[in-house]
Amino acid sequence: MLEWVKLPERRSETGNIVIAEVEKDVPFAIRRVYCLVDLDVETRRGFHAHRQLEQLVICLHGSCRILLDDGSRRTEVTLAQPNRGLLLRSMIWREMFDFSQGCVLMVLASEHYDEADYIRNYDDFMQLVGVPSDSFS
Ligand code: T46
User: If DSSP codes are grouped into helix, strand and coil, which group holds residue 116?
Assistant: First the structure.
């Protein structure tokens, strides 16, 4: 469930460049890029899975935590490095939280925005992955 992508870097005294190339680093064609900015440090976001969408989440500045849940396992990780992307495959429930002040997340997505691809109800998600929704309680 946890798939990190180490992005190549070109470092120099004047600054660093982090690179993400389709096929080499990103395992899907990128059809959309969006950023999460001005995030409320107290907030928790996400609370959904995607039916088809695949994404690479990169923390460009600051840090945050992300919970991943595939219906049978749950794990929490920290995103904090621009050269370390987290691959979010389809049918993974995610919640993002503990945003540092000024945290910026960039997301490379395999599809255009489509609300129909979202599963925003946890019970529906558990039904679709075939696990009784009280299995974590
Ligand atoms: C995800 C996590 C990591 C659009 O109209 N177009 C877009 O491309 C996106 C991403 C969102 N929206 C609209 C949909 C909602 O009305 O923006 C609003 C906020 O989106 P949402 O509540 O889904 O935001 P997050 O931060 O919970 O989730 C986002 C992505 O939507 C999601 O795919 O995996 O970031």
Answer: helix
How far does the centroid of ligand 1 lie from the alpha carbon of residue 100, in Å? 19
Instruction: Determine what percent of the chain falls in helix, strand and coil, rounding each to the nearest 5.
Output: 10, 45, 45
In the prediction, which pLDDT does 131 show? 78
Ligand 1 neighbourhood includes 65 CB (under 6 angstroms): no
The C-alpha atoms of residue 37 and residue 104 are separated, in whole angstroms, by 5
Q: What residues of the chain score a pLDDT lower than 70?
A: 133-137
**49 burial type by CB count under 10 A (0-12 exposed, 13-18 middle, 19+ buried):** buried
